[in-house]
Amino acid sequence: MTNPTPTPLPPHTKIDEWPAERLGLRKFNFRLIARLTGMLLIYMALCMALPLAVSLLYQDGAQFSIVISAMLILMLGLFLRNFVGRKATFDLKESESYWFTSFVWLAIPFSGTIPYLFSGCIGSFTDAVFESVSGFTTTGSSILSRPEELPQSLLVYRSFTQWIGGMGFMLFAVAILRKLGIGGEQLYEAEFSGTRQRKLHPHLSKSVSRLFTIYIILTVIMMALLLANGTSVFESLCLAFSTVSTGGFVPHSMGLVTLSDGGLIVVTAFMILSGISLAQLYYLFTFKWRQYGRDEELWTYLGIFFVVATMSTIAFTTAGNDFRTSLRYSIFHVASSMSSCGFYLPKPQHWSFVVSVLTFLIILMGASAGSTGGGIKILRVITLYKYIGNYFTHMIHPNAVTCVKVNHKVVEEDYINKIFAFVFLYIAFIIIGAFVLTLCGCDIPDSICMAAANISNLGPSPLINNLGGNLDYSILPHFAKWTLVTLMVAGRIELFALIAVISPAYWKRG
Amino acid sequence: MVEGGLILSCLIPAFHFADGTWPAITVSGLFTFNVGLFLTVSYHEARRITDKRMAYLLVVIMWVVTSLFGTLPYLATGVTTSFADALFESASGTTSTGATIFSAVEWLPASILLWRSMTQWFGGFGIVLLVLALVPSMGINKYSLYTAEASGADNTGKQTTSMGATVRHTLGIYIFLTLLFIFILWKTGLHIWDAVNITFTNISSGGFSIYNNSLGHLTHLQQYVIAAAMLLSGINFSMLYYFLTLQWDRLRNKFDQLASYLVTFLLGALFVILALAIKMDYALPDAIRCGVVQTISVLTTTGSLVADTSAWWVPITFLFVVLSLCGGMAGSTTGGLKAMRVLILIRNVRKILRDRLHPRSVNPVRLNKKPVSEEIITNVMVIFLVYAVVIFVGIMLLMLSGINATESIGATIACITGYGPGLGTSGGFGCYAAFTIAGKIICTFLMILGRLECLTLLILFVPKFWSRG
């Protein structure tokens, strides 16, 4: 695999001075970041065409608010792109990619609240931010206890935010960066945060476009299958968007109960698929099946799914449910938790503790690296597992010469250290988040589960006892909602970017 | 053997208070004494074996056997008839955890009370000795759990050279502190019997009490004295030794750990005081007293209680869980992850960020202004992760044994860190009596696991450990 040819950087005309410089903070290419964010916002405004079309089709009366919101986002985007970022120099340093990530995650979810607020569907700003962040981070936690009361167009918009978020607008950004002639490798890595994704093509933008194609194909197939199983056009559109992105917004407070059996199978299958790395799916669709034998992550993912589903079926059956219900619920529930989709069905009559604990475990592990799902990621879990096994060997035979291999490649110490640090941060975030949630009056197990479910971008989970009837977060106080919003973003951008911009080291002149 | 002696020394209160338990105590004491003699002989044999595996095995056997024989006084005197209960209580003593299965302790015979306190005193000393003297001398390698404390991070070279000297110093400090606090407590008007028991359990960061309401029984002044004892018990014993022998320049070698330990304590105490004063309507002096004493009790994983903490505001109890996970300094009697590990974990994150920001710079993780080697960082990371996994598995097993989620979380963390009181019924002045036998055995296992910092015990379960070659 060769690196793409280095692109010649445009000559440095002048690095813009930003007020931060005068405050003694490090200088960074603020204008470029503004410009890129502006471009993303413009794309987002264009995306509002879809909800608008739905609105016109269903005559749900939200068309004006959508048009106005789109205009507002467009104006904001144009302002950032053409005014703030007009004189940008096209040079993005490694450290600035963190800024870019964080800034984008601030700008897009916040402008994403505009449609909710304008149409008056969600009254309070906090709630709108919660819903919007939950959408773009593909979490799927909702504060709507009765989503069906919203106009259809906004429900489509809601699921659509997940779809956009799932692909990672960072990947859009990477594509844009290529066009501007700036290397986007750091961003590509930031998006997959150091899990060393194989590129599908030496050219970065081509890899991105391939991934994107797969994503669209999956969505279309899923929608078609749902339609074939008797789901309405509107609902299959929403469900396809939120399943493929592992989001989990459901346009109905009844959840998925209304689906036919066939529909449920389609949703389950696509949940499992969307927990697999997009690159692997690309090989599937291009018939490069030989790649599968090599990929440990894929098989571990499927293996864990199979084992956990079996165990929870047994647990439910022994708890006193009949086998069919147990099997059906287990498969659905495990697929949903593992891929971090966060769909749910009504609980079986007798709940089992075993399932609670197993679920918590797979929520933390999450999906494959390079998929749209959240969590620590299977690849990291495999690496750590092997490393600790190796460590034990060394404790017994101190002079043994061994190495840790994942996917037939030796893993360096440096990389393992990063993974360890990542897991430490992950646990630390969950503990701190849970602590803040207890301050808001939640009990301890609930707080821990809520923090874990949101940092893993899962959303609603039957593990959390004291939520609304629709597993919605509307009953939480505002402070708790902001905590969860932070956790969702932290989980989606995989912690380091967030830690980076709040750490003093980052702000020093460097 | 030492233990046999200890049990026999319990005869003193047995005779003194004439509570009729002396025959039982004598029998169990003599029995333990004989077994101890046998084990000591085999230990001397074993010392000739230089295999690392033997070292791990020995450490584990030391704790397991001590816990097993510690059950004898409980069973012989008949204060409990169930072996699981006796084992739980005994392990809780030798690991200086302080979790108890007795819902009320005041009716227990005096000799048993002294025995409980003594197991903790002995256990607390054992762990200090293990970390500071035995492990370095047994030559456990760089992949061992105590690497960080025993060799690496403290690579000043001029540590006390021989094992004998370290043992003497440590023992000296320990006895000195014990006598000092017994004396102070006695001076503040406490009965000598109470003073001895309370000092034994608090200087070892154990937390057994001879009163149902633990420290609540004492005057405010005495509570502050105990807090000081606990605070000292959370400090590395070599550090105390250097301090008392006026070798103050050597204190610098562990200054970072000490600072982080104290800062954690202050921040935790501040939060608890504020929460008590604002949320729970404590008067300010009470809030300060309870906040300070209880926070230090939690951070050093002692588990002595000034009030029924299970009734406190939920975030405080959650904070306690987190603080007990942090623990005191390594090389002290406390449990938990230890201040140094937490520091290294946090500084490693900072290092990684710096590496990202300035890819060509060299950013070592520093501790006490000295770079920490890669091996130690990995060691810390592995222990952290194994700790997390063990806690998770512990919670799962306890839930399976029929205990609800909150209590499982509380009990697991209380047992593995050696804090003692959990959440819910096992928390506060409550006890573990309501747990099923399976639950008690899991807790017992967790206590020993936590005391030996997971790896030593877990490695026995790796098949390779037992294979030849």
Estimated structural class of chain A: mainly alpha
User: Order of strands across the widest beta sheet of chain B?
Assistant: 1-2
Average pLDDT of chain B: 80
Query: Helicity level of chain A, as a percent range?
Result: 55-70%
Task: Evaluate the radius of gyration of chain A.
Answer: 23 Å
How do the strands of the widest beta sheet of chain A line up side by side? 1-2
Give an overview of the whole structure:
The complex is a heterodimer of chains A (510) and B (469). Chain A has 510 residues and is mostly helical. Chain A is 64% helix and 1% strand. Chain A has 23 helices and 2 strands. Chain A has a two-stranded antiparallel sheet. In chain A, a hairpin with a 2-residue loop joins strand 1 and strand 2. By secondary structure, chain B is mainly alpha-helical. Chain B has a two-stranded antiparallel sheet. About 4% of the residues of chain B have low confidence. The interface between A and B is large, with 47 and 49 residues.
